[in-house]
Design brief:
four-stranded mixed beta sheet; elongated; 13% strand; 167 residues; single chain; alpha+beta; 5 helices; 37% helix; 4 strands
Length: 167
């Protein structure tokens, strides 16, 4: 697991990153915003805590019996999506469209493959639960859980979907 950069290391990295220039024909990268110890946090503590709480609730959302049925494929996994190699923006858009389409098709469980990342700390693996816990998906997502080993283990998630209202 990677450790966070110390303030001195962050300062040195910012200086090194400032010397990097794009190749001809490439776009200029965004300049990293240097943070000092007295700089305010980017995320307000209250909002960060609310996000963590939503994430915990979402991760605990699949009741154990249902997770077991999904893992044993007694409850069908209606669809799968593999987010490997996608940028965060593309992965989020693809994931949201996928989950909404699966819900509209009446599926109750889907598999989202995020990958584990190089050292088990993949960006998509960390971000997907937060994306699925977003308020605009609350009417669709019932919960999520780490997949069983034969479905990808720590590199995949079962997403339980709510029942589609009849009408």
């Amino acid at each position: 697991m990677k450790r966070p950069l110390k303030p001195e290391e962050q300062k040195i990295w910012s200086m090194v990153a400032a010397t990097v220039h794009p190749l001809p024909g490439r776009s200029t990268p965004r300049k990293p915003t240097p943070q000092t110890l007295d700089a305010p946090a980017r995320i307000e503590p209250k909002r960060a805590e609310e996000a963590r709480q939503r994430l915990r609730e979402a991760l605990e959302g699949i009741e154990p019996n249902r997770r077991h049925r999904i893992a044993r494929e007694r409850e069908e996994i209606g669809a799968r999506i593999d987010l490997h190699g996608m940028t965060q923006d593309r992965a989020r858009a693809a994931l949201e469209a996928f989950v909404l389409r699966a819900f509209d098709d009446g599926w109750r469980a889907v598999l989202v493959i995020t990958g584990k990342g190089v050292q088990g700390d993949g960006v998509l693996r960390k971000r997907v639960p937060d994306w699925l816990g977003a308020p605009h998906l609350a009417h669709v997502v019932a919960g999520l859980s780490e997949a069983a080993r034969h479905h990808g283990g720590a590199g995949a998630l079962y997403v339980a979907l709510k029942r589609k209202p009849r009408g």
